[in-house]
């Protein structure tokens, strides 16, 4: 937004909460609208764990999973498509249907690389190895739900999770300018339970990860 | 530690926490407290109310302690000063700040914290003529805490946050903390729940809020004497390593 010299502009506050807006008591109509919106923003996951049938996620036995690789964002999803996934070794086991202001995904598993989608795959030769390609944007208020619904389906014992994601180099905080930084480059975060060797340097402060990869 | 809220017993402890507010002053001040006393992390809140974030240890001082993951709502403790500190590192998700306040206050009750101190800030541009003169620091006490320490506030010569007219020309005055995030809600809820809560806030604007954080933490120190108030109190607070590069990276040499 262009401003001229001397114009007073109300800067967005990092406080986030706009007190005036939030202080209003919610009328029954507001509550109804909010509930409808919340329902529209709910995430549905359709699992095809038994060949053929597509059912909504139900309270079935948690699936045994040894490795779960999650690719979040178009670049990471494309990486999996180019180097890992193929129709011979991997089968689709689930699809996420969601809607938010930025994108909508459907329950179809037949997707184009340019579509927004979130699919789950299983290695046919070892069904405990799972992959997720999530090229759609999962909004702030949907991230926790995604997390609970996906990981709620899996047994956590002995599970190793790898999250692949990308960020713009311009967002990387470093002493030098990012212009001279050789890119692309890899950085990692790991929990203390992860005992294996990490293939790249750890992400230094003050850099952080947010949104679905962080969740 | 673990899933859900930390369920430790903090009987007799003071809980110190920030409101996510203008300039993030409360959060910066909390960073100074945690960093200066090298506080130990004792737990975290597993919550869907805050935007998720994760990074490596923001208080790292060396390679060895730099690898611990840190998330958006973590609890630290300093038993020697009977202090437990909550740090909040990301904004609230829309419509989720009320559930968070409720969860937080019920945790305060269940963990038996003695009292809560909220560090916060408010938009400086909303100050009236009188507020523009004199100190930009204010306090608030719930009635239960007023009984215990009201006299001390007089001795310290502190200024209570003024109430303002609900509408211009109307005499009925209300508490208004613009830019204070959840401060007002936490305070009013604590009043009605009989929780001993104090709010310490500073009028400020967005910008370089490091000086505001120092002012707020020194204000807290006037009351709680966490560090000895010698001539130069400010220099005794330790800036955490994560405050590096708050205003961007180095410049490309080709610019010149």
From TrEMBL, chain A:
Family: Belongs to the PSMG1 family.
A Gene Ontology cellular-component term: endoplasmic reticulum
Listed GO biological process terms: proteasome core complex assembly
Keywords: Chaperone
Organism: Smutsornis africanus
Pfam family, one: PAC1
Keyword Chaperone included in the entry's annotation: yes
InterPro entries, per database record: Proteasome_assmbl_chp_1
GO molecular function, one term: proteasome binding
Residues annotated as signal peptide: none
Name listed for the protein in its UniProt record: Proteasome assembly chaperone 1
From TrEMBL, chain B:
Keyword presence, Nucleus: yes
Domain of life: Eukaryota
GO-annotated biological processes: proteasome assembly
Entry's localization field: Nucleus
InterPro entries referenced in this protein's UniProt entry, alphabetically: Proteasome_assmbl_chaperone_2, Proteasome_assmbl_chp_2_euk, PSMG2_sf
Gene Ontology CC entries for this record: cytosol; nucleus
Gene3D superfamilies on file: PAC-like subunit (3.40.50.10900)
Role noted for this protein: Chaperone protein which promotes assembly of the 20S proteasome as part of a heterodimer with PSMG1. The PSMG1-PSMG2 heterodimer binds to the PSMA5 and PSMA7 proteasome subunits, promotes assembly of the proteasome alpha subunits into the heteroheptameric alpha ring and prevents alpha ring dimerization.
Subunit composition and interactions: Forms a heterodimer with PSMG1. The PSMG1-PSMG2 heterodimer interacts directly with the PSMA5 and PSMA7 proteasome alpha subunits.
Family: Belongs to the PSMG2 family.
Protein name per its UniProtKB record: Proteasome assembly chaperone 2
Organism this protein belongs to: Smutsornis africanus
Organismal lineage: Eukaryota, Metazoa, Chordata, Craniata, Vertebrata
